Amino acid sequence: MAKTLPDSKSRFRCAHCGNLTRFDVVRSAKVSEFWHVDISGAPVVEEATVLAEEIVEVKCRWCAAADRIEIVPRPEFGGPSTEGPGDGGP
What's the pTM value of the predicted model, to 2 decimals? Predict the structure, then answer.
């Protein structure tokens, strides 16, 4: 099960159904934000800094597997190049 997020050279893949594009990611984050509040009282977040982050769960949107998610290289770095079932791929 993936407990980290992919970087610029990798991506998620469901080892159960082959899905490469649709995942539900649950994250827990501690964030510092700069809020600009206008005269009417409506806030706008102008800056946000993630202080801490934890990946709670990554689940395949197609087969609902949460224990078979892996991180694989992107195609240009030697990873799978075709989409999985139901992903709109070939």
Answer: 0.71
